[in-house]
Amino acid sequence: MTPAAASACESIYPMLRWMTAGESHGEALTAVLEGVPAGVRITSEDIRAALARRRLGHGRGARQAFERDELRVLGGIRHGSTIGSPVALQIGNSEWPKWSTVMSADPVDPHDLLIDAGTGDEREIARNRPLTRPRPGHADLPGMLKYDLPEARPVLERASARETAARVALGAVAEAILEQVAGVSLVSHVVRIGSVALPDDVPPPRAEDTERLDADPVRCTDPATSAAMVAEIDATRKDGDTLGGVVEVIATGVPVGLGTHVSADRRLDARLAAALMGIQAVKGVEIGDGFTEAARRGSAAHDEIVSVDCGTLTRSTNRAGGIEGGISNGSDVRVRAAFKPISTVPRALRTVDLATGEPATGLHQRSDVCAVVPGAVIAQAMTALVLADLLLDKTGGDSVDEAGRNLRSYLDRIAERTQWRTER
Length: 424
What we know:
This protein is an alpha+beta fold. The chain has a single domain, classed as Chorismate synthase AroC (Chorismate synthase, AroC fold), CATH 3.60.150. The protein is 34% helix and 18% strand. The protein is built from 12 helices and 17 strands. It has helices at 3-10, 44-54, 96-99, 122-128, 140-147, 153-159, 164-182, 210-215, 223-238, 268-277, 372-395, 400-423; strands spanning 17-21, 28-34, 70-75, 77-78, 81-82, 87-92, 185-193, 196-197, 245-252, 282-287, 305-308, 312-315, 323-324, 327-328, 333-339, 350-352, 359-361. The strands form 6 sheets. It has a 5-stranded antiparallel beta sheet with strand order 8-7-9-15-10. It has a 4-stranded antiparallel beta sheet with strand order 1-2-6-3, covered by helices on one side. The chain is globular, with a radius of gyration of 23 Å. The protein starts with a helix and ends with a helix. Residues 1-12 and 420-424 have low confidence and may be disordered.
Protein backbone atom coordinates (compact mmCIF):
# COMPACT_ATOMS: atom_id res chain seq x y z
CA MET A 1 0.00 0.00 0.00
CA THR A 2 1.35 3.42 -0.92
CA PRO A 3 1.76 6.11 1.77
CA ALA A 4 -1.02 8.10 0.12
CA ALA A 5 -3.37 5.12 0.18
CA ALA A 6 -2.50 4.39 3.80
CA SER A 7 -3.25 8.00 4.72
CA ALA A 8 -6.60 7.80 2.94
CA CYS A 9 -7.51 4.64 4.84
CA GLU A 10 -6.52 6.11 8.19
CA SER A 11 -8.64 9.21 7.61
CA ILE A 12 -11.88 7.25 7.63
CA TYR A 13 -11.46 6.28 11.27
CA PRO A 14 -12.77 8.61 13.98
CA MET A 15 -10.45 9.94 16.67
CA LEU A 16 -12.83 8.57 19.30
CA ARG A 17 -14.13 5.05 18.78
CA TRP A 18 -16.69 3.57 21.12
CA MET A 19 -18.63 0.37 21.56
CA THR A 20 -21.10 -1.03 24.05
CA ALA A 21 -22.00 -4.63 24.85
CA GLY A 22 -24.56 -6.33 27.04
CA GLU A 23 -28.28 -6.93 27.30
CA SER A 24 -31.04 -5.19 29.21
CA HIS A 25 -31.37 -7.96 31.82
CA GLY A 26 -27.87 -9.37 31.47
CA GLU A 27 -25.33 -9.25 34.26
CA ALA A 28 -23.85 -5.93 33.13
CA LEU A 29 -23.38 -3.44 30.33
CA THR A 30 -19.85 -2.78 29.12
CA ALA A 31 -18.62 0.33 27.30
CA VAL A 32 -15.25 1.14 25.77
CA LEU A 33 -14.07 4.54 24.51
CA GLU A 34 -10.79 4.57 22.59
CA GLY A 35 -8.82 7.68 21.64
CA VAL A 36 -9.27 9.64 24.86
CA PRO A 37 -6.22 11.86 25.40
CA ALA A 38 -4.30 11.64 28.64
CA GLY A 39 -4.98 14.18 31.34
CA VAL A 40 -8.77 14.47 31.15
CA ARG A 41 -9.92 15.07 34.71
CA ILE A 42 -12.86 12.79 35.49
CA THR A 43 -13.92 10.60 38.41
CA SER A 44 -16.34 7.74 38.96
CA GLU A 45 -18.65 10.20 40.70
CA ASP A 46 -18.78 12.39 37.59
CA ILE A 47 -19.94 9.41 35.54
CA ARG A 48 -22.40 8.28 38.22
CA ALA A 49 -23.91 11.77 38.24
CA ALA A 50 -24.60 11.49 34.50
CA LEU A 51 -26.17 8.05 34.98
CA ALA A 52 -28.36 9.41 37.78
CA ARG A 53 -29.65 12.15 35.48
CA ARG A 54 -30.69 9.49 32.96
CA ARG A 55 -32.93 7.88 35.61
CA LEU A 56 -34.87 11.09 36.25
CA GLY A 57 -38.20 12.09 34.80
CA HIS A 58 -41.95 11.87 35.29
CA GLY A 59 -43.46 8.93 33.43
CA ARG A 60 -40.66 6.45 34.02
CA GLY A 61 -41.34 2.77 34.71
CA ALA A 62 -40.92 0.77 37.92
CA ARG A 63 -37.36 -0.28 37.06
CA GLN A 64 -36.02 3.20 37.80
CA ALA A 65 -37.13 2.84 41.43
CA PHE A 66 -34.55 0.16 42.18
CA GLU A 67 -32.01 0.20 39.32
CA ARG A 68 -28.75 1.52 40.74
CA ASP A 69 -26.43 1.59 37.70
CA GLU A 70 -23.58 -0.08 39.60
CA LEU A 71 -20.61 1.56 37.86
CA ARG A 72 -17.10 0.10 37.77
CA VAL A 73 -14.20 1.74 35.95
CA LEU A 74 -12.19 -1.12 34.45
CA GLY A 75 -9.46 0.84 32.72
CA GLY A 76 -8.23 4.08 31.20
CA ILE A 77 -8.62 6.28 34.30
CA ARG A 78 -6.17 6.51 37.20
CA HIS A 79 -6.39 8.79 40.22
CA GLY A 80 -9.10 10.91 38.64
CA SER A 81 -7.42 11.43 35.27
CA THR A 82 -7.39 9.58 31.95
CA ILE A 83 -4.09 7.94 31.03
CA GLY A 84 -4.35 7.71 27.24
CA SER A 85 -5.48 4.09 27.04
CA PRO A 86 -9.07 3.05 26.23
CA VAL A 87 -11.59 3.94 28.92
CA ALA A 88 -13.50 0.79 29.88
CA LEU A 89 -16.64 0.97 32.01
CA GLN A 90 -19.05 -1.61 33.40
CA ILE A 91 -22.58 -0.95 34.65
CA GLY A 92 -24.00 -3.79 36.72
CA ASN A 93 -27.64 -4.91 36.65
CA SER A 94 -29.06 -4.94 40.18
CA GLU A 95 -31.78 -7.41 39.06
CA TRP A 96 -29.32 -9.95 37.70
CA PRO A 97 -30.11 -12.68 40.27
CA LYS A 98 -33.71 -12.77 39.00
CA TRP A 99 -32.55 -13.13 35.40
CA SER A 100 -29.48 -15.33 35.75
CA THR A 101 -31.28 -18.41 34.40
CA VAL A 102 -33.17 -16.93 31.48
CA MET A 103 -30.13 -14.83 30.45
CA SER A 104 -27.47 -17.44 31.23
CA ALA A 105 -24.56 -17.56 28.76
CA ASP A 106 -24.35 -21.33 29.22
CA PRO A 107 -26.94 -23.89 28.06
CA VAL A 108 -30.04 -24.19 30.24
CA ASP A 109 -32.51 -27.08 30.37
CA PRO A 110 -35.78 -25.71 28.91
CA HIS A 111 -37.62 -27.36 31.81
CA ASP A 112 -35.69 -25.18 34.25
CA LEU A 113 -37.16 -22.08 32.63
CA LEU A 114 -40.65 -23.17 33.63
CA ILE A 115 -39.92 -23.73 37.31
CA ASP A 116 -40.75 -21.09 39.91
CA ALA A 117 -37.55 -20.56 41.88
CA GLY A 118 -39.54 -20.10 45.07
CA THR A 119 -40.16 -16.37 45.03
CA GLY A 120 -43.91 -16.85 44.82
CA ASP A 121 -43.97 -14.37 41.94
CA GLU A 122 -46.03 -15.71 39.01
CA ARG A 123 -44.29 -13.19 36.74
CA GLU A 124 -41.10 -15.21 37.12
CA ILE A 125 -42.47 -18.10 35.07
CA ALA A 126 -43.93 -15.68 32.51
CA ARG A 127 -40.53 -14.00 32.24
CA ASN A 128 -38.83 -17.29 31.41
CA ARG A 129 -41.26 -18.44 28.72
CA PRO A 130 -40.43 -17.99 25.01
CA LEU A 131 -41.65 -14.63 23.66
CA THR A 132 -43.31 -15.53 20.38
CA ARG A 133 -45.73 -12.58 20.09
CA PRO A 134 -43.70 -9.73 18.57
CA ARG A 135 -44.68 -6.22 19.63
CA PRO A 136 -45.60 -3.67 16.95
CA GLY A 137 -43.10 -0.82 16.85
CA HIS A 138 -40.26 -2.85 18.37
CA ALA A 139 -37.35 -4.67 16.76
CA ASP A 140 -38.99 -7.99 17.76
CA LEU A 141 -40.34 -9.23 14.41
CA PRO A 142 -37.66 -7.98 12.00
CA GLY A 143 -34.97 -9.10 14.46
CA MET A 144 -36.44 -12.61 14.76
CA LEU A 145 -36.65 -12.92 10.98
CA LYS A 146 -33.22 -11.43 10.24
CA TYR A 147 -31.34 -13.57 12.77
CA ASP A 148 -33.55 -16.68 12.40
CA LEU A 149 -34.48 -16.70 16.07
CA PRO A 150 -37.40 -18.73 17.50
CA GLU A 151 -38.41 -16.00 19.97
CA ALA A 152 -37.99 -12.28 20.59
CA ARG A 153 -36.02 -12.39 23.85
CA PRO A 154 -32.55 -12.18 22.23
CA VAL A 155 -33.74 -9.25 20.12
CA LEU A 156 -35.52 -7.13 22.69
CA GLU A 157 -32.76 -7.58 25.27
CA ARG A 158 -30.22 -5.80 23.06
CA ALA A 159 -32.68 -3.44 21.36
CA SER A 160 -33.80 -2.13 24.76
CA ALA A 161 -32.98 1.47 25.64
CA ARG A 162 -31.29 0.12 28.77
CA GLU A 163 -28.18 0.03 26.55
CA THR A 164 -28.17 3.83 26.50
CA ALA A 165 -26.89 3.85 30.09
CA ALA A 166 -23.54 2.79 28.66
CA ARG A 167 -23.64 5.61 26.10
CA VAL A 168 -24.49 8.17 28.76
CA ALA A 169 -21.47 7.00 30.76
CA LEU A 170 -19.21 7.48 27.74
CA GLY A 171 -20.86 10.83 27.06
CA ALA A 172 -19.71 12.03 30.48
CA VAL A 173 -16.12 11.40 29.40
CA ALA A 174 -16.74 13.19 26.10
CA GLU A 175 -18.18 16.22 27.89
CA ALA A 176 -15.07 16.40 30.07
CA ILE A 177 -12.90 16.42 26.94
CA LEU A 178 -14.94 19.21 25.38
CA GLU A 179 -14.88 21.38 28.47
CA GLN A 180 -11.20 20.91 29.29
CA VAL A 181 -9.85 21.25 25.75
CA ALA A 182 -12.16 23.92 24.34
CA GLY A 183 -14.43 25.25 27.09
CA VAL A 184 -17.50 23.76 25.38
CA SER A 185 -20.59 23.25 27.57
CA LEU A 186 -23.78 21.35 26.80
CA VAL A 187 -27.33 21.44 28.10
CA SER A 188 -30.45 19.48 27.15
CA HIS A 189 -34.13 20.06 27.76
CA VAL A 190 -37.58 18.88 26.68
CA VAL A 191 -39.48 21.08 24.22
CA ARG A 192 -42.52 18.84 23.63
CA ILE A 193 -44.36 15.95 25.26
CA GLY A 194 -47.38 14.73 23.34
CA SER A 195 -49.55 17.71 22.44
CA VAL A 196 -47.86 20.09 24.92
CA ALA A 197 -45.04 22.19 23.47
CA LEU A 198 -42.71 24.78 24.96
CA PRO A 199 -43.68 28.23 23.60
CA ASP A 200 -41.23 29.63 21.04
CA ASP A 201 -40.71 32.81 23.05
CA VAL A 202 -39.24 31.00 26.07
CA PRO A 203 -35.46 31.67 26.15
CA PRO A 204 -33.30 28.57 25.63
CA PRO A 205 -31.44 27.23 28.67
CA ARG A 206 -27.69 27.48 29.27
CA ALA A 207 -25.35 25.00 30.89
CA GLU A 208 -25.68 26.81 34.22
CA ASP A 209 -29.39 25.89 34.19
CA THR A 210 -28.64 22.15 34.37
CA GLU A 211 -29.30 21.82 38.09
CA ARG A 212 -32.67 23.55 37.72
CA LEU A 213 -33.56 21.32 34.77
CA ASP A 214 -32.56 18.21 36.71
CA ALA A 215 -34.99 19.25 39.45
CA ASP A 216 -37.91 19.68 37.06
CA PRO A 217 -40.05 16.52 36.62
CA VAL A 218 -40.01 16.81 32.82
CA ARG A 219 -36.77 18.73 32.29
CA CYS A 220 -38.58 21.82 31.03
CA THR A 221 -37.46 25.43 31.48
CA ASP A 222 -40.97 26.91 31.79
CA PRO A 223 -42.99 26.04 34.95
CA ALA A 224 -46.41 26.38 33.29
CA THR A 225 -45.42 24.18 30.36
CA SER A 226 -43.86 21.68 32.76
CA ALA A 227 -47.12 21.37 34.71
CA ALA A 228 -49.07 20.82 31.49
CA MET A 229 -46.60 18.13 30.38
CA VAL A 230 -46.94 16.32 33.72
CA ALA A 231 -50.73 16.40 33.39
CA GLU A 232 -50.47 15.00 29.85
CA ILE A 233 -48.33 12.10 31.09
CA ASP A 234 -50.69 11.35 33.98
CA ALA A 235 -53.73 11.32 31.69
CA THR A 236 -51.94 9.03 29.25
CA ARG A 237 -50.96 6.62 32.03
CA LYS A 238 -54.57 6.50 33.18
CA ASP A 239 -55.65 5.65 29.62
CA GLY A 240 -53.16 2.78 29.41
CA ASP A 241 -51.18 4.46 26.64
CA THR A 242 -47.75 5.99 25.97
CA LEU A 243 -46.34 9.34 24.82
CA GLY A 244 -43.50 10.68 22.70
CA GLY A 245 -41.98 14.13 22.39
CA VAL A 246 -39.08 16.31 21.30
CA VAL A 247 -35.82 17.20 23.06
CA GLU A 248 -33.20 19.83 22.30
CA VAL A 249 -29.46 19.86 22.93
CA ILE A 250 -27.47 23.10 22.88
CA ALA A 251 -23.66 23.16 22.80
CA THR A 252 -22.07 26.53 23.60
CA GLY A 253 -18.48 27.50 22.85
CA VAL A 254 -18.02 25.12 19.91
CA PRO A 255 -15.10 26.48 17.87
CA VAL A 256 -15.50 27.19 14.19
CA GLY A 257 -14.19 24.43 11.93
CA LEU A 258 -15.46 21.12 13.35
CA GLY A 259 -16.56 18.84 10.54
CA THR A 260 -15.98 19.44 6.85
CA HIS A 261 -17.74 20.15 3.57
CA VAL A 262 -15.48 17.87 1.52
CA SER A 263 -16.88 14.43 2.46
CA ALA A 264 -20.50 13.59 3.19
CA ASP A 265 -19.70 11.17 6.02
CA ARG A 266 -17.51 13.71 7.84
CA ARG A 267 -20.01 16.56 7.86
CA LEU A 268 -20.85 17.67 11.40
CA ASP A 269 -24.59 17.74 10.74
CA ALA A 270 -24.49 14.28 9.15
CA ARG A 271 -22.57 12.88 12.11
CA LEU A 272 -24.98 14.43 14.61
CA ALA A 273 -28.02 13.19 12.70
CA ALA A 274 -26.65 9.64 12.61
CA ALA A 275 -25.78 9.71 16.32
CA LEU A 276 -29.21 10.96 17.35
CA MET A 277 -31.10 8.65 14.99
CA GLY A 278 -29.18 5.78 16.57
CA ILE A 279 -30.99 6.39 19.87
CA GLN A 280 -33.85 3.97 20.46
CA ALA A 281 -37.28 5.46 19.56
CA VAL A 282 -35.88 8.52 17.73
CA LYS A 283 -37.73 9.02 14.44
CA GLY A 284 -36.63 12.51 13.44
CA VAL A 285 -33.70 14.91 13.81
CA GLU A 286 -33.60 18.66 13.28
CA ILE A 287 -30.54 20.92 13.05
CA GLY A 288 -31.23 24.52 14.02
CA ASP A 289 -34.62 25.63 12.74
CA GLY A 290 -34.66 22.58 10.48
CA PHE A 291 -38.10 21.90 9.08
CA THR A 292 -39.30 25.43 9.81
CA GLU A 293 -36.70 26.66 7.31
CA ALA A 294 -38.53 24.86 4.53
CA ALA A 295 -41.44 27.31 4.85
CA ARG A 296 -39.27 30.44 4.70
CA ARG A 297 -37.87 32.40 1.81
CA GLY A 298 -34.10 32.46 1.53
CA SER A 299 -33.87 36.08 2.60
CA ALA A 300 -35.46 35.15 5.93
CA ALA A 301 -33.77 31.77 6.36
CA HIS A 302 -30.05 32.45 6.64
CA ASP A 303 -27.89 33.99 9.35
CA GLU A 304 -26.28 37.21 8.15
CA ILE A 305 -22.62 37.78 9.04
CA VAL A 306 -21.60 40.94 10.88
CA SER A 307 -18.27 42.23 12.18
CA VAL A 308 -17.94 43.62 15.70
CA ASP A 309 -15.12 44.45 18.11
CA CYS A 310 -12.41 45.10 15.56
CA GLY A 311 -12.80 42.00 13.44
CA THR A 312 -14.85 39.50 15.44
CA LEU A 313 -17.34 37.87 13.10
CA THR A 314 -20.73 36.96 14.52
CA ARG A 315 -24.37 36.38 13.54
CA SER A 316 -27.49 38.22 14.57
CA THR A 317 -29.48 34.96 14.37
CA ASN A 318 -28.76 31.23 14.61
CA ARG A 319 -31.31 29.56 12.36
CA ALA A 320 -28.65 27.19 11.02
CA GLY A 321 -28.03 25.74 14.47
CA GLY A 322 -24.34 26.60 14.40
CA ILE A 323 -23.55 24.50 11.32
CA GLU A 324 -23.08 25.64 7.72
CA GLY A 325 -21.90 23.36 4.92
CA GLY A 326 -21.26 20.57 7.40
CA ILE A 327 -18.87 22.75 9.46
CA SER A 328 -19.41 24.43 12.82
CA ASN A 329 -19.50 28.21 12.35
CA GLY A 330 -18.83 29.35 15.92
CA SER A 331 -22.45 29.82 16.96
CA ASP A 332 -24.18 27.51 19.43
CA VAL A 333 -24.74 24.05 17.95
CA ARG A 334 -28.44 23.36 18.35
CA VAL A 335 -30.07 20.00 17.55
CA ARG A 336 -33.45 18.41 18.24
CA ALA A 337 -34.59 14.79 18.28
CA ALA A 338 -38.17 13.53 18.03
CA PHE A 339 -39.03 10.44 20.08
CA LYS A 340 -41.98 8.27 19.09
CA PRO A 341 -44.29 6.98 21.86
CA ILE A 342 -42.99 3.93 23.73
CA SER A 343 -43.85 0.81 21.71
CA THR A 344 -44.71 -1.34 24.74
CA VAL A 345 -48.30 -0.15 25.09
CA PRO A 346 -50.25 -1.36 28.16
CA ARG A 347 -53.41 -1.70 26.06
CA ALA A 348 -51.66 -4.35 23.96
CA LEU A 349 -51.69 -3.94 20.18
CA ARG A 350 -52.60 -6.64 17.67
CA THR A 351 -49.93 -9.05 16.49
CA VAL A 352 -49.49 -12.70 15.44
CA ASP A 353 -48.09 -15.49 17.60
CA LEU A 354 -45.22 -16.86 15.52
CA ALA A 355 -45.40 -20.21 17.33
CA THR A 356 -48.98 -20.86 16.17
CA GLY A 357 -49.72 -18.38 13.40
CA GLU A 358 -52.80 -17.27 15.32
CA PRO A 359 -53.85 -13.65 15.94
CA ALA A 360 -52.73 -12.41 19.35
CA THR A 361 -51.98 -9.29 21.35
CA GLY A 362 -48.44 -8.03 21.81
CA LEU A 363 -46.73 -8.99 25.03
CA HIS A 364 -46.50 -6.24 27.62
CA GLN A 365 -43.51 -5.96 29.91
CA ARG A 366 -42.66 -3.38 32.53
CA SER A 367 -41.91 -0.14 30.69
CA ASP A 368 -42.15 3.64 30.78
CA VAL A 369 -45.22 5.69 29.87
CA CYS A 370 -42.95 8.43 28.55
CA ALA A 371 -39.17 8.24 28.08
CA VAL A 372 -38.67 11.68 26.57
CA VAL A 373 -37.03 13.13 29.70
CA PRO A 374 -34.16 10.60 29.80
CA GLY A 375 -34.08 10.93 26.02
CA ALA A 376 -32.79 14.47 26.47
CA VAL A 377 -29.89 13.24 28.62
CA ILE A 378 -29.08 10.49 26.11
CA ALA A 379 -29.19 12.96 23.21
CA GLN A 380 -26.80 15.22 25.10
CA ALA A 381 -24.37 12.31 25.56
CA MET A 382 -24.47 11.42 21.87
CA THR A 383 -23.97 15.05 20.86
CA ALA A 384 -20.96 15.23 23.17
CA LEU A 385 -19.41 12.10 21.67
CA VAL A 386 -19.70 13.50 18.14
CA LEU A 387 -18.38 16.95 19.06
CA ALA A 388 -15.48 15.54 21.10
CA ASP A 389 -14.51 13.24 18.24
CA LEU A 390 -14.46 16.06 15.69
CA LEU A 391 -12.71 18.41 18.11
CA LEU A 392 -9.86 15.92 18.54
CA ASP A 393 -9.88 15.32 14.79
CA LYS A 394 -9.19 19.05 14.39
CA THR A 395 -6.65 19.47 17.20
CA GLY A 396 -4.87 16.14 17.43
CA GLY A 397 -2.79 15.63 20.53
CA ASP A 398 -2.11 12.77 22.92
CA SER A 399 -2.85 14.84 26.02
CA VAL A 400 -5.38 17.48 27.01
CA ASP A 401 -2.65 20.11 27.23
CA GLU A 402 -1.35 19.32 23.75
CA ALA A 403 -4.84 19.37 22.25
CA GLY A 404 -5.53 22.68 24.00
CA ARG A 405 -2.31 24.25 22.69
CA ASN A 406 -3.11 23.12 19.17
CA LEU A 407 -6.61 24.56 19.42
CA ARG A 408 -5.32 27.91 20.67
CA SER A 409 -2.85 28.09 17.79
CA TYR A 410 -5.64 27.38 15.33
CA LEU A 411 -7.93 29.99 16.88
CA ASP A 412 -5.10 32.55 16.85
CA ARG A 413 -4.72 31.97 13.13
CA ILE A 414 -8.44 32.55 12.64
CA ALA A 415 -8.29 35.74 14.69
CA GLU A 416 -5.43 37.03 12.54
CA ARG A 417 -7.38 36.21 9.40
CA THR A 418 -10.48 38.12 10.44
CA GLN A 419 -8.41 41.04 11.74
CA TRP A 420 -6.68 41.26 8.36
CA ARG A 421 -10.01 41.39 6.58
CA THR A 422 -11.23 44.18 8.85
CA GLU A 423 -8.11 46.27 8.24
CA ARG A 424 -8.57 45.99 4.50
